[in-house]
């Protein structure tokens, strides 16, 4: 688990010879409708996790981008408990966190997800100003991005340790 930072932005080049920041710009230009749908899904009541065994997260197909394959994004939102809220506020957050948002990115064909592409989708969704609030969890096969958000769904800074064990619980 680690915070997304600018190290991969400059050091990691891939298929289309674009780093995640450049690829995010391309996604924002060409797929703003998909990003709008993804953002709407974050706020939709069905994204709020339920205790029912029948509940499933909302999933959206992400189109192919710059030679990369199509992906799927599943959105889950949890309410933030008092301990996590206190830790985030103690970490220096300016607004009170209301939700933990998790986006799991998978390959519909079952293949390994390229971290450059998944990070690019997240950068396009949350923006460069908030990317440092996002934490990346994953086993290399699929990636899950988690962050705290306030009542207006704006990302809130938080320590990576807050999400230790999250991938096991999610």
Secondary structure layout plus pairing:
Blueprint: E1 2-3, H1 7-11, H2 20-30, H3 32-43, E2 58-62, E3 71-79, H4 82-90, E4 99-106, H5 115-126, E5 135-138, E6 143-149, E7 155-156, H6 166-169
Antiparallel strand pairs: 1-5, 2-3, 3-4, 4-6, 5-6, 6-7
Helix pairs in contact: 2-5
Mean pLDDT: 86
Report the sheet-strand fraction: 15-25%
- Rg result: 15 Å
Shape: globular
Report the uncertain regions: 6-14
The figure for the number of domains is 1
What distance separates the N and C termini? 14 Å
Q: Count of DSSP helices?
A: 6
Number of strands: 7
The run of helices and strands is EHHHEEHEHEEEH
Helix-strand makeup class: alpha+beta
Query: Share of helix among residues?
Result: 25-40%
Largest sheet: 7 strands, antiparallel
